Amino acid sequence: MNYPFAPQTKNYESSAVRDILKVTQQGHVISFAGGLPAEDIFPIEQVQIAYEKVFASGKSSLQYGLTEGFIPLREAVQAKMEKRGIFSHPDNILLTTGSQQVIDLFSRIMLAPGDVVLTEDPTYLAALQVFRSYGANVVAVKSDDQGMITEDLKEKIEKYQPKFVYTIPTFANPDGKVWSQERRQELFNLCSEKNVLILEDDPYGDIQFHQDEVYQPVAALDTDKRIVLYTSTFSKSVVPALRTGWVTGPAEVIKLMTQAKQMNDLHSSSLDQQALYYLLRDFNLDSHIALIRSVYYERMKLMKEYFDKVGSGLFTCREPKGGMFMWVEGNEELNTTALLGEAVKKGVAFVPGAPFYVNEPKHNTFRVNYSHSTPEKIKLGMERLVDVLTSVPVATKTI
Amino acid sequence: MNYPFAPQTKNYESSAVRDILKVTQQGHVISFAGGLPAEDIFPIEQVQIAYEKVFASGKSSLQYGLTEGFIPLREAVQAKMEKRGIFSHPDNILLTTGSQQVIDLFSRIMLAPGDVVLTEDPTYLAALQVFRSYGANVVAVKSDDQGMITEDLKEKIEKYQPKFVYTIPTFANPDGKVWSQERRQELFNLCSEKNVLILEDDPYGDIQFHQDEVYQPVAALDTDKRIVLYTSTFSKSVVPALRTGWVTGPAEVIKLMTQAKQMNDLHSSSLDQQALYYLLRDFNLDSHIALIRSVYYERMKLMKEYFDKVGSGLFTCREPKGGMFMWVEGNEELNTTALLGEAVKKGVAFVPGAPFYVNEPKHNTFRVNYSHSTPEKIKLGMERLVDVLTSVPVATKTI
């Protein structure tokens, strides 16, 4: 039968990352492809204790909950954000199924076919897929190591009148970039002046390697809660299975997103939200995050050593200051999508950079994840990867 | 600031049920308004044991999962559906955040502004809200006690070329209706012939009071899995907080819904899905469902007694054969929306019937829920409600 699907489904793309993950679930492949946190340091005992507290609180913990989410957890989220300089109110926080749902709900209430979204390039590919699924045109703003270039942003805001700007200003996926304070301020000033909304995606902000540096969320500049939607998640700082993210921002926008969420799924798992509340209340999450930072830093350094060794003459990567990803660039003739086949044959996987690009993909780039694999696996996987990388004729290019 | 929301947000409506629930959360009001299952019989110990098994299975239980959902739970869902005559395959089952998410994802891949959806009248109001949020026109098919009237359905399929027919054929929300076997077959035959999809919403099918009767899901007729999407949930048979629903149907449709879900939230809570798997494996869910049935039957009978007493000369309601709701109709001049204010003042709440209607609302109808309140609360609440009902001048009308 020829199903009469809605026209916008033509914009659906299967996720390259997801397809690759499927391939690499063969046991012998060491995968640096996904975006998975380190399982070996999951605080499973603490999570279990938190659930026991939920059940001890009685049967009403198993009833339907509010669309907005469990109130005490929203209060805890507020307190957490205040440490980063974002002042909100529990009534103005919506709990979601991961921050992915924030990207989707916000797009749903903002985007109609033909609308424009401005993004970095490369950027989070699942966000690109969402924007396009609503028929939006994604336009990339020119960027350098400091963030979006303000002049180009200004020009594109004036030319396209975008519905919003999407950015991951701290430890970006895929390229690990951190915006400078100056560019954050310029982004905020410009959007504020032009009345353009900003969706600030901050899933990795907690995973900061150098405690002497300060990365102020753009949302912290928006003291009137007028133009910045700020989203983050517990998937990276606690565990992904709880699927709990949140968003705060202008009250009118949050209210409409709440209505959209009510239609979407009534509410997210309230058991998970209650467990997270007890976890945040009774468990030293800050010291757990400190553990995550030190473990990820060590793994990143280990992985980087291999690239640096090969890189002297072949590949270059910038050392990330946090987050979960390293971005690698080879010479211009290299095609990492083609290289992936070779790599998987040798038992290692990465994500080719191309699908992360908005416009012309740089086929000579790829992303590796250092958080998920143990040091032993990183060593073995990197030996394999070095083997693959040095077997192709390439030249260095610095990014 | 004047936010540039997408045009389709103009179709968003705040849920009347939800607004009422907020009002009735004042402690003194006995609410028959919501659609909540009975908390007092939640199998909390068994749910807790199931979670302990998840944690005992190791840290990988806390990692990201598949968009489609936890495979062993999909296998269990398949086995559960086979008892109702629906033969599917785990690859063709998508686990969701409640069946609400099924209604939303299916609408998302099917509906563009101006498309038509055919429904019963009255029907589940949150489904109406979803269809309209995608810009669809909802057209009601004439119905009687047996289900949609086939002649009218045929006429409207030919006239409107609808994207799909939405129906709750067994213990409908709000009016508790059960379709006859003949009408189920006619619906299926007609849609099959005309290539029209059917979304069969079956959240209450398990809560069947009379075990000698058989209600065959429409999906059981669709042996080729060509036109029927079947959705159900564990919210009513286990507990709502786990937020786990599912859908099965044509492979091509399920695949596209899976892509939509990936963009929507990557995946639902995998902890909840794993716990449900252990619960279904080790707990006698059938005997728990038998308990639910007997408890709800007793509560329904108790509530009905009060209406019957008043009804002799004033109100009428049909005895439901299952589900969670009773539908009451008074004389034509009655306005139950106006009456609600009086009722809440006297400490009892119901849902006025009007928002459940597609076209002309019958303002003399209302819905009461009998599952959530204990017998003591039902007695107290019904005394209050009878007081309100008998204080207005009304006349009987049989539905």
UniProtKB/TrEMBL annotation, chains A, B:
Keywords: Aminotransferase, Pyridoxal phosphate, Transferase
CDD domains for this protein: AAT_like (cd00609)
GO molecular function, one term: pyridoxal phosphate binding
Cofactor(s) the protein requires to work: pyridoxal 5'-phosphate
Pfam family, one: Aminotran_1_2
One example of a Gene Ontology biological process annotation: alpha-amino acid metabolic process
Domain Aminotransferase class I/classII large, residue spans: 52-385
Superkingdom assignment: Bacteria
Classification via InterPro entries: Aminotransferase_I/II_large, Class-I_PLP-dep_aminotransf, PyrdxlP-dep_Trfase, PyrdxlP-dep_Trfase_major, PyrdxlP-dep_Trfase_small
PANTHER family, sorted: AMINOTRANSFERASE, KYNURENINE_ALPHA-AMINOADIPATE AMINOTRANSFERASE, MITOCHONDRIAL
Subunit structure: Homodimer.
Family of the protein in this entry: Belongs to the class-I pyridoxal-phosphate-dependent aminotransferase family.
Protein name according to UniProt: PLP-dependent aminotransferase family protein
